[in-house]
Amino acid sequence: MKKIFTYSFLNTIILTLIFTQQSLAQELEKDPPNMNMDAVFNRPTLTADDAPIAIGGYLEANTIHKINDEGDSDGLSFQARRLTLFLSSSITNRIKFMTEIEFEDGGNEVEIEFAAMDVAFHPLLNLRGGIVMNPIGAFNENHDGPKWEFVERPDVATRMMAATLSNAGFGLHGKTHHKNWIFGYEAYLTNGFNGSIISNEEDKTYLPAGKEDPKRFMENASGKAMFTGKIAIKNHQFGELGFSYMGGTYNKFEDDGEDVEKPANLNVFAIDFNTEIKNWGTKFVGETSWIRVDTPENYTEQYGSKQFGFFMDIIQPVYKNKILDWEEATLNLAARIDYVDWNIGKFKSTHTKIGDELIAISPAISFRPTPQTVFRINYRYEWQKDIINNPAEQAATWYVGFSTYF
After folding, report:
1. Distance in angstroms (rounded) separating the CA atoms of residues 328 and 326
2. Among 314, 360, 361, CA closest to 340
3. Average of pLDDT values for 373-381?
4. Could you tell me the CATH number of the domain that includes residue 58?
5. C-alpha–C-alpha distance, residues 30 and 90, integer Å
6. pLDDT tens digits for 148-207?
7. What's the number of domains the chain is made of?
8. Do the Cβ atoms of 267 and 136 come closer than 8 Å?
9. Which pTM was predicted?
10. Range of the domain at 291
11. Alpha carbons 253 and 255: distance in angstroms, whole number
């Protein structure tokens, strides 16, 4: 399956290059509309006339109050979730540097999420290297807080897929368009995951644990590059649809050229989409993912080899008008459904379904004085089952907060 995807990916790029060769001059003069892959470029920044650097960022803060099904609660807390800084610089013609630095939990965690140099040869052929965002799904690249109506990030992104995953590496990206259609692609070779995805505090197969590796920007645990590729198509009327794949070996199976254990592979497939009903302004944003992990034969069924999850957001503007000095202030109603199954399958001994899954529903109200700032009120109700399918633990959470670019 990995080889089929890779060959199809490369063939699509080659055919597209051939198809667009005749209209090269016209394409160079145009600026194709934004896609999810353009999130790193599509951010508000400030720069002085003679300054070599543009700067921007965003802030997220909120309150949280959670109660479980037994009525227990830790009470009300205020959270300074994250402060993120963007810096970019046009070094010379066709060469640009960009970075994203995030301070989380009041500065207790500092992480370089993105730091790369782009060299532009052609709209369809751009070289990128450094610390790159792995283009798996859409949320991983397009995750800025002010763009979303919800305080929490989707569970499939944060608790199954390792949201805002970035790695050291390099690759190619590009896009082109014809009339109402836009085509984009990304392909990178980077460092990959390590054994922590099956050996972690969660006691299950858990990709987010791989982000905790402090050496992942300096060395590759397996010694083999991980490939991440994405193809996306967008139409002005129907929205954007993306197909992506990420995979590679996550264990160190060779030592001085000799095999020391069997290679263990990781494969992730994702489909993302977004669309809008123009007459009503209703927006739909969703993403679904499948994970396949080779787990050691001596591991128990607690560690799943197959995982699946998705989320769906529906956003409906209900009022848009001038309020105070805000020309296009907008009030939205929204809803999200989250679903994650960390362990698909049945127990061999009992032939009963393995649990370890979560479902959550989150209605929301958001107010945007401008598109760059959002005030959010969210209510989240979740059901989570343990691995042996005991009655689901339930919890209700209120969030009130804001996020803004600056």
Report:
1. 6
2. 360
3. 98
4. 2.40.160.10
5. 19
6. 999 999 999 999 999 999 999 999 999 999 888 999 999 999 999 999 999 999 999 999
7. 1
8. no
9. 0.88
10. 2-405
11. 7
